[in-house]
Write a structure and sequence with these properties.
- With 322 residues, the chain is of the alpha/beta class.
- It has two domains: 3-184, 3-Layer(aba) Sandwich (Rossmann fold), CATH 3.40.50.620; 202-321, Rossmann fold (3-Layer(aba) Sandwich).
- Helices cover 28% and strands 25% of the residues.
- The chain is built from nine helices and 16 strands.
- It has helices at 16-32, 45-53, 73-87, 98-111, 221-230, 239-243, 274-277, 297-300, 309-321; strands at residues 3-6, 9-10, 13-14, 36-41, 59-63, 91-95, 115-125, 128-135, 140-144, 152-156, 172-176, 207-211, 234-237, 264-268, 285-290, 303-306.
- The strands form three sheets. A nine-stranded mixed sheet has the order 9-8-7-10-6-1-4-5-11, with helices on both faces.
- Helix 3 packs across helix 4 and helix 5 (221-230) runs parallel beside helix 9 (309-321).
- The chain is elongated and about 65 Å long.
- It starts with a strand and ends with a helix.
- The mean pLDDT is 93.
- Bound molecules: flavin-adenine dinucleotide.
- Flavin-adenine dinucleotide binds next to helix 6, helix 7, strand 15 and helix 9.
């Protein structure tokens, strides 16, 4: 195959970002006339294989091994190195997840092959893909084409390709094997990264009402919570709100918070700093309310209201409740 998509499990099922990686790979395959396959491994290999075989991919490679039943960076690295040697894919793609950040750079370093991380889009130029990623915290955009001829690893940013654009299909599964020994695994991983306990995974929310410093003071936060309740939405926030302790850390959206891609994102009194934008620009509809008509958030908003949120929020909540 040309493109090997590496799946990751979340609670026994395919991680949302693995499905987004499939959407990216399908788009690449279509534009460049390439073939695809999914690799599933680890203790959830069977359920992941079921997920993957219902997609429009060439085949599903199933890798089961006792030493892969618990995730370890060493085990996964060794396994993928051997699969790359066996299958010679041109591209290995995956989501830019916390787990991928832990082990994938090792594969790249040990095989001395390119790793293009956190990609936001891919397009075809002639017969080559061009991968686009943001650099310098989103201030510049860089286009990269691997030219060495060896396998290139590519990870995609959350919501770069929407999960709902994945094309369904039916794919055969094939068992693959690797040789692993206990001496190859010298690290023991801690449990997977969890957002703060009691936290909410905003990445799955369909509607997010997000609040910024424009709310003025902590006593005004209930205005936002009331609007969120009326819309059956989750509350999100910019960083200063969390830094001030007005909302818990897991509500923060942005480069040092969560990446979200809801159907509707309301940005209330949020200026639109790049560190915030990178976490929510994948939202399908962005509605911004800000009293400054020049606020950068309006550049990416689908709908913008220039006004005072302290006046608008109670009226909007009342209107929705009615
Ligand atoms: C390394 C690093 C990581 C960062 N990570 C993140 C991150 O993950 N997420 C994040 O959000 N930020 C992050 N930041 C901070 C980021 O740079 C901005 O400072 C922050 O996003 C600004 O938050 P804000 O828009 O709420 O506040 P401000 O920039 O202060 O904007 C407030 C806005 O509210 C408007 N306003 C004021 N009063 C009203 C009113 N009554 N009605 C309507 N509008 C009003 C103003 O016009 C203004 O546009 C990070 C910064 C750094 C350096």
């Amino acid at each position: 195959m040309d493109i090997l998509i590496v799946f990751e499990a979340k609670e026994g099922q395919a991680h949302r970002m693995s499905l987004e990686a499939v959407a990216a790979a399908q788009s690449m395959a279509k534009e460049l006339n390439l073939t695809t396959a999914v690799l599933v491994m680890g203790k959830d290999a069977k359920s992941l294989a079921e997920n993957a075989s219902a997609l429009d991919v060439g085949e599903v490679l199933t890798l089961e091994h006792d030493l892969l039943s618990e995730y370890s960076a060493d085990g996964y690295t060794e396994a993928l190195k051997q699969i790359i040697a066996q299958e010679s894919p041109s591209y290995v793609v995956m989501g830019y997840t916390y787990q991928a950040r832990d082990w994938v750079p090792k594969v790249s370093a040990q095989l001395t092959i390119p790793y293009i991380s956190d990609v936001i889009s891919v397009k075809a130029e002639g017969e080559s893909p061009v991968f686009t990623r943001m650099v310098y915290n989103g201030k510049l955009i860089s286009d990269i084409t691997p030219t060495g001829g060896e396998t290139a690893i590519v990870s995609f940013q959350a919501a770069a390709y929407p999960e709902d654009s994945v094309i369904s299909g039916s794919a055969e599964t094939r068992s693959v094997e690797v040789e692993l020994g206990a001496s190859m695994i010298s690290t023991v991983s801690e449990p997977p990264f969890q957002e703060e306990s009691g936290g909410v995974d905003l990445s799955g929310a369909e509607v997010i009402v997000s609040v910024g410093r424009g709310i003025g003071k902590e006593e005004n936060i209930p205005l936002v919570e009331a609007l969120a309740k009326s819309l059956n939405a989750e509350v999100g926030s910019s960083r200063p709100i969390v830094d001030a302790g007005w909302l818990p850390t897991f509500r923060q959206v942005g480069s040092s918070g969560q990446s979200v891609a809801p159907k509707l994102y309301l940005a209330l009194g949020i200026s639109g700093a790049i560190q915030h934008i990178v976490g929510m620009k994948g939202s399908k509809n962005i509605v911004a309310i800000n009293k400054d008509a020049e606020a950068p958030i309006f550049e990416i908003a689908d709908y913008g209201v220039v006004g005072d949120i302290l006046e608008i929020l109670p009226k909007l909540t009342e209107a929705i409740e009615q």
